[in-house]
Design a protein that fits this description.
Elements (H helix, E strand, L loop, with lengths): L9 H16 L15 H5 L10 E16 L4 E8 L2 E8 H4 L1 H8 L6 E10 L5 E12 L15 H6 L1 H7 L1 H23 L3 E2 L5 E2 L11 E4 L4 E5 L4 H9 L4 E9 L11 E10 L3 H18 L14 E3 H9 L9 H10 L12 H13 L7 E7 L15 E9 L2 E8 L4 H16 L10 H8 L5 E7 H9 L4 H4 L8
Parallel strand pairs: 3-5, 6-10, 12-13
Antiparallel strand pairs: 1-2, 1-4, 2-3, 4-5, 7-9, 8-9, 10-11, 11-16, 13-14, 14-15, 15-16
Helix pairs in contact: 6-7, 7-9, 10-12, 13-14
């Protein structure tokens, strides 16, 4: 059977429709309102791991799930029921259910949602089984499920029709359960450390907090254009100004950039801000949080998350990878000359400003070589318009990015809290925009005025949830870990 749901033969769809009509003619509601008292299959199975083959109990359970397999008919049949927690065999017998009910049950189609009442026993082969004492059709499936032997293999269909992927592939269900555990553990860790979760606007009059192009929408009632946020940074720092001191937000950001294995235009980010801390404290917290998550989900993959992670200055990382010293080539022409003279580096330098060229050196020659977690630290001021100047190294800011498995997954600063310096940084961004830089940031006077109220020394972190899930689950494409990724027509 094809993976594509639109390719399903019309006779199969017609046969299921005919069964639906027969069920209704029998006085059965194929789509009842509820089915109370259900427990997870894993919960029903848990107490009986040591039940001996052939042993029977009177303990009764109610489970529900999708009919995934059926063996036998007539006087006795075995069916497999699947829910989020696992799969369980159930045994249907005519001498228990009666001939009519037995005939109804074995007529159910694969993919139908069924509620089962039964008592636990271990089959002669040692498989935990429920002997069916009653059953209820919970939803008639009018389309056949994906082929049970091959699952759902077509990648495009898996992404476009994620519900079919979840039905067909246990691994897909486990992945998104793991994702939920990662998010829960992250929230628990921050909450336990005194952070409070807040919510800030998704629709913003000015976008900011990152170097990215925004999506634009229109508010009809206000009759004005608004931007989908590219980051939560500026609003969260206003919360710090207001005295909340430790805040975080976990939610969607939107950046109008190209699709890739590492980027989905709509992505999930957590940002947190901590007063009276700096980027060194933030590195400690990122390290602690990620290690804790790995332990919580029992990570056993090839990445070594163990602390401490190396902390390498950006200029040193680039020099080690390319031989180019950006601390010496501090102007565009000098950097272009160094790139041209390098035997290791091949970059398109046309129409690329100095900050963009430095970023290219990092992303193309340093980032792909990183396997285990590494902090790259101390960035040029031109790359970081919201970070505080480095306290000992002129021209640099106190910033780090965390890299692992060839990609960046966290970005952090000792936050700039001098309003006059912030105003100058905004003005620099405006000049870049006038020069054609589409990823520069607009001038946000409201934010500057907030800083003029006084913001304490603060560390801020942005950590990509989708990329963290990729690392923790061994996936190499962001579309694997986003339930419904953006797709071309």
């Amino acid at each position: 059977m094809s993976d594509q749901p639109t390719d399903q033969p019309s006779e199969l769809l017609a046969a299921r429709r005919a069964k639906l009509d027969r069920i209704r003619e029998q006085g059965v509601d194929p789509f009842p309102h509820d089915f109370p008292g259900v427990i997870a299959i894993a919960e029903a199975q848990a107490p009986w791991a040591t039940l001996e083959a052939g042993e029977e109990r009177d303990d009764a359970y109610r489970i529900a799930g999708r009919l995934a397999a059926r063996r036998g008919q007539g006087k006795m049949a075995f069916l497999d029921i699947v829910d989020r927690s696992g799969r369980m065999q159930v045994q249907a017998r005519a001498d228990v259910l009666g001939e009519e009910a037995m005939a109804q049950l074995v007529e159910f189609d694969l993919g139908d949602l069924v509620g089962i009442d039964g008592t636990i026993f271990s089959s002669r082969s040692g498989e935990l089984t429920l002997r069916v004492t009653d059953f209820t059709l919970l939803a008639k499936s009018l389309r056949p499920p994906p082929d049970k032997h091959h699952g759902l293999q077509d990648v495009e269909t898996r992404y476009r029709r994620r519900e079919l992927d979840l039905i067909a592939n246990e691994e897909a269900r486990e992945l998104f359960v793991t994702r939920a555990k990662i998010v829960s553990e992250l929230r628990r860790s921050l909450d336990d450390d005194g952070f409070i979760e807040v919510e800030t606007p998704v629709l913003q009059p000015l976008y900011g907090g990152a170097l990215a192009r925004p999506f634009i929408t229109h508010h009809n009632t206000l009759d004005r254009d608004l931007f989908l946020r590219i980051a939560t940074e500026l609003y969260l720092k206003r919360c710090i100004v207001g005295g909340l001191e430790r805040v975080y937000e976990l939610g969607k950001d939107f950046r109008n950039e190209g699709l890739s294995t590492k980027h989905n235009p709509e992505f999930t980010m957590v940002e947190w801000y901590e007063a009276y801390a700096d980027y060194g404290n933030a590195m400690d917290r990122v390290e602690q949080l990620v290690v804790g998550i790995a332990e919580a989900i029992n990570y056993d993959g090839p990445i070594d998350f163990a602390a401490p992670w190396p902390r390498i200055p950006l200029a040193q990382a680039i020099k080690d990878a390319t031989g180019i010293d950006i601390n010496e080539a501090t102007e565009r022409d000098a950097l272009v000359a160094a790139i041209g003279a390098s035997k290791k580096v091949k970059l398109d330098v046309e129409d690329r400003a100095w900050p963009a060229l430095v970023d290219d050196l990092l992303s193309k020659y340093v980032e792909p070589t990183i396997t285990n977690p590494v902090f790259i630290t101390d960035y040029p001021t031109a790359l970081s318009p919201f970070a505080k100047a480095h306290r000992t190294q002129p021209g640099l800011v106190e910033r780090f990015e965390a890299f692992c498995s060839g990609m960046e997954f966290a970005n952090a600063f000792t936050e700039l809290n001098d309003p006059d310096e912030q105003r100058r940084r905004f003005e620099d961004q405006v000049r870049l925009a006038e020069g054609g830089d589409e990823e520069s940031q607009p001038y946000d006077e409201v934010f500057v005025q907030a800083l003029e109220q006084g913001m304490p020394p603060t560390a801020g972190v942005g950590l990509g949830i989708d990329r963290l899930v990729m690392l923790m689950t061994g996936r190499d494409s962001i579309r694997e870990v986003v339930l419904f990724p953006a797709m071309r027509d």
